[in-house]
Amino acid sequence: MSTTIAAPPDKRVLITKPRTSDRIFRGVVTAFGISALLILTLIGVFLSVRGIQTFHSQGWHFLTNFKWEVVQNDDGTATSNLGIGAMLLGTILISIVALLIGVPLSIAMALFLTFYAPAKLKTFLVSVVDLMAAFPSVLFGLWGFFVLMPMVTYWAKLIYKYFNWIPVFSAPEPFFERSPFTAGVVLAIMIIPIVTSVSREVFAQTPLDRIQAAYALGATKWGVIKSVVFPFGSSGVVGGAMLGLGRAFGETVAVFTVLNIVFRGNWHVLYGAGGNVASLIILKWGESTGDETTALLAAGFVLFILTLVVNLSANFIVRRSVKSGK
Amino acid sequence: MTQINQGDDNSTNEGESMTTETVPSSLAGVAASRSSSRKPGTLPMGAGLEARGVHAWFNKHLALRDVSLDFGFGTVTALIGPSGCGKSTFIRTMNRMHEFIPGAAMAGEVLLDGKDIYAAGTDVTKIRLQIGMVFQKPNPFPSMTIGENVLSGIKLAQLKVDNKDDLLEECLVRAGLWSEVKDRLSAHGGSLSGGQQQRLCIARSLAVKPRVLLMDEPCSALDPGSTLRIEDTIGELAKTMTIIIVTHNMQQAARVSDYTAFFLSDGGPGQMVEVGPTSEIFSRPRDKRTENYVSGRFG
């Protein structure tokens, strides 16, 4: 006679029956919780539905076309040749400038706040940096226009004078005001708060035992930062920089204030011509009709997708770096 | 200041032999065999590390009161005592790691070759090169390979080494890890087992050629097998350097150390109750509290 091992019984279904009040509360909270996602989806759907006509008429060329023209024909119809190529190029150019200037400053600031600042100064500075994040961007724009621009123009001239042999720093004509460089500097200041606060958070999570290990080996403070803090926090800083990039992509008013918006593929960072997708929308919105309006909505959809992708990947990177503890 | 006197070894009187019986014979036996295998008296005393009237505070709380201890060159000293008695705090004052804790303060002197390491103008990083430390939890740098971990101190302190490969091998051999990792030096430090990681940390602290090695409960996170490996390593290392080890494991203190210092806190700041050759502390301690502790009646 062979003994068979009895199969384990079926798993029981565990049910808890919530009270009615609990069910109602849960329903309300869930509804509001989902509404955020719903609103985001609705915006995306709205933009794509309204803008889709542009993609039909202009095709993928919409993304690479540097022209934005509406020609009135004699018979009352209009022929439009619309593209956001110049604006996309400008967006990328400005964002790169903003990141190149803003990220190192933010890292330095985060290091100071985490490892050097006395406790009281730290608390104060952290709230100042957070306040900076909450500042209306038009204020940055105005300040950038009146205070920063003259200075930045001067720097631009200097850079042009000594580095114009580097293609990016050359210019078709010596016109340096309201350039992508200027807009990038203003944006750099605007992304400092978010990049600083994310970097500060990951730096502060550096395991104490690794820091002590480095000190016990005769490391200087800089040695500890270089060998322990940076390897640990690098992906967090990258994530923070991408959140900054998300902001730089979408920034409208500040860029609109300081930038000379021109429909022309300009990659000369010091030359006073450029634009970005967001500022295009605000520039053309008031006067647009028909095809142009649709095209602006399509541009909005492109911006929506860009921002979504950048922010989602930033969040992913930040979360992974915090979790893995590497 | 407590001087350790080798001459006391043979002086036994009635009272002390009475206490011998109250101590578990195993511990005393281990300590005796350990002590007889080494003759610390032949090593130059006083050429190592000296603590004089060390006090330590955390903010207003006095955690350690007036500890004076001599650590002769080439000796292994175990610091034992129940939790919260200040032994970890004390060992951290010996290479100025104590001051990393916000609000930490100290008083007294710690002399390395007669020079106060707390003197104004001292380069702390140089002090820590001479007085290395191994921590309770193995803490290799996870972003570095095994080889890079061992040599990280060289890089951090910007020391010049003629042959890095030789140094790498030497340190891993001395830490008792070479045979296990020699084929995978480029693997990451985090890929090793806990015990291997701790020996990697020992190898890492050896690379900068310290003269004193502080070990803060180096085996408390490890399994018995790894613990034994590390104890063997300690025995090897003691031939060329001074070792101070904090341990909760009295068996371990008996196995590895030449001298044992017993710390205790009676609710107030921790103090050193007694220090002496390990065999004596475990067989005929002078203080009743030490006897109670080593015989397992409390703590």
From TrEMBL, chain A:
Main location class: membrane
Pfam families attached to this UniProt entry: BPD_transp_1
Location of this chain's protein in the cell: Cell membrane
Keyword Cell membrane carried by entry: yes
Keyword Metal-binding: no
Name used for this protein in its record: Unannotated protein
Listed GO MF terms: phosphate transmembrane transporter activity
Lineage: unclassified sequences, metagenomes, ecological metagenomes
CDD domains per record: TM_PBP2
Domain called ABC transmembrane type-1: residue spans: 88-314
Organism, as annotated: freshwater metagenome
Membrane-spanning ranges: 24-47, 84-117, 124-148, 181-203, 224-245, 265-283, 295-318
GO cellular component terms attached to this protein's record: plasma membrane
GO aspect biological process, one term: phosphate ion transport
UniProt membrane topology term: Multi-pass membrane protein
Keyword line: Cell membrane, Membrane, Phosphate transport, Transmembrane, Transmembrane helix, Transport
Family: Belongs to the binding-protein-dependent transport system permease family. CysTW subfamily.
Automatic annotation (TrEMBL), chain B:
SUPFAM superfamilies xref list: P-loop containing nucleoside triphosphate hydrolases
GO molecular function: ATP binding; ATP hydrolysis activity; phosphate transmembrane transporter activity
InterPro entries in alphabetical order: AAA+_ATPase, ABC_transporter-like_ATP-bd, ABC_transporter-like_CS, P-loop_NTPase, PstB-like
CDD domains per record: ABC_PstB_phosphate_transporter
Compositional bias (Polar residues): 1-25
Renumbered residue ranges of the record's region Disordered: 1-44
Entry GO terms, CC: membrane
Domain ABC transporter positions: 49-294
Gene3D superfamilies, A to Z: P-loop containing nucleotide triphosphate hydrolases
Keywords of the record: ATP-binding, Nucleotide-binding, Transport
GO biological process, one term: phosphate ion transmembrane transport
UniProt keyword Nucleotide-binding, yes or no: yes
PANTHER family noted in UniProt: ABC TRANSPORTER I FAMILY MEMBER 17 (PTHR43423)
Protein name: Unannotated protein
Organism: freshwater metagenome
Upper classification of the organism: unclassified sequences, metagenomes, ecological metagenomes
